[in-house]
From TrEMBL:
Protein name stated in the entry: Alternative dihydrofolate reductase 3
Pfam families, per the entry: SnoaL_3
Location of the SnoaL-like domain: 10-115
Species assigned in the record: Caenispirillum salinarum AK4
Gene3D superfamilies hit by this protein: 3.10.450.50
Length: 136
């Protein structure tokens, strides 16, 4: 599988874990070694592994967390690092998101996620990831 495809698959798995509210799968998406960082919309940066994972556990356990769909994902590779940008449809509101992944052996794992509101509409029509429907 080409590396770009493998990294995109990891991003899709991240959003699938989010949609399923599956904390075990979400935890497995994150790198097991090294630092993790995360910036949730409107929140300060999280820079400790435990606080990043605890934040996801709380988000996924909250029944009021809206559904999230990944739209128009793009991947750029820098050796063993992949940067993914996309739009997130969060209950009808579009956010811009960045996911940074690193290789752990043959698998791409997240080390950073950030999402925040758009101040201007995109100048293109966002498309569901994979072209076959939204990742939710």
């Amino acid at each position: 599988m080409p590396e770009t495809t493998a990294a995109l698959f990891a991003v899709e798995a991240f959003y699938s874990a989010f949609a399923a509210r599956d904390f075990s799968a979400m935890r497995d998406m994150w790198a097991s070694e090294g630092p993790l960082t995360c910036i949730h919309p409107g929140a300060p940066p999280l820079t400790e592994r435990d606080e990043v994972l605890e934040s996801w556990e709380a988000i996924l356990a909250n029944p009021e967390t809206p559904d999230v769909q990944c739209l128009s994902p793009e991947i750029v590779l820098y050796g063993d690092t992949a940067v993914s940008t996309c739009l997130e449809d969060v209950g009808g509101e579009l956010l811009a998101a960045t996911n940074v992944l690193v290789r752990e052996g043959p698998v791409w794992k997240l080390v950073h996620h950030q999402a925040g509101p758009l101040t201007v509409a995109p100048d293109f029509e966002p498309e569901p990831a994979g072209g076959e429907g939204p990742i939710n």
